[in-house]
Write a structure and sequence with these properties.
Blueprint (H helix, E strand, L loop, with lengths): L1 E3 L14 E2 L7 E3 L6 E4 L1 E4 L6 E3 L3 E5 L2 E3 L4 E6 L5 E3 L2 E3 L3 E7 L6 E4 L10 E3 L4 E7 L1 E4 L2 E3 L7 E6 L6 E3 L2 E3 L3 E5 L2 E3 L2 E3 L7
């Protein structure tokens, strides 16, 4: 269990990069007052709560895997203008949750350059694949098979600054995209189920 209790300042994740995190209550917890955290090639599974939880502004979280966690695979609160891309998130209660009330550039979940294939792959979670609130852009992801009868592929909640979803592929969920925010250029394939 890695916990940044005193904060990580200007840390480039050399000791946590390419790392399988031990099974515990929470796999990795980056707490408030940390800055410039860059997470890459992390694996977190089998934890009773969240796989990777970040409660601070960060640089990025990429190329990581979070699966079979009792809570959320990747949970981020106020990550700022972070980039969360090329992650594989599956078999958790929820896949990726982000709440970002910071102003300025949004948190980007995925990648707008579709030719790079750097979107997140989010599947087989119990409730929600990707759930965001606030200043967040969800772009270029593939989200499928959230398994409960009320499973939602992408849920955009716009309590503060409006969240957006663009250029995602969403299929085989009870509800494809649930929102009162902006959705564009997304392919939603749901046979006999709710779409947007």
């Amino acid at each position: 269990f890695f916990q940044a209790e005193d904060g990580i300042r200007d840390y480039k994740v050399t000791g946590v990069q390419t790392c399988a995190l031990p099974i515990s209550g929470m796999g990795l917890w980056v707490r408030e007052d940390s800055s410039n955290f860059l997470g890459n090639r992390l694996v977190s599974s089998g934890n009773t709560t969240d796989g990777i939880r970040i409660d601070s502004a960060i640089g990025s979280l990429s190329d990581s895997v979070a699966f079979a966690n009792g809570g959320t695979g990747l949970a981020l609160t106020n990550p700022g203008a972070a980039r969360v891309e090329a992650n594989r998130v599956y078999g958790n209660r929820n896949g990726i949750t982000v709440s970002n009330s910071t102003t300025g550039d949004p948190t980007v979940i995925g990648n707008a350059d579709l030719s790079l294939a750097r979107g997140n792959l989010v599947s087989g979670n119990l409730e929600k694949g990707i759930q965001v609130d606030g200043n967040v852009l969800v772009v270029g992801n593939t989200v499928w098979d959230q398994s409960s009868s009320s499973g939602v592929g992408i849920h955009l909640d716009s309590i503060t600054v409006g969240a957006e979803a663009r250029s995602n592929v969403v299929f085989d969920n009870s509800t494809g995209i649930q929102t009162d925010s902006y959705v564009a250029n997304s392919r939603i394939v749901e046979i006999g189920r709710a779409h947007v």
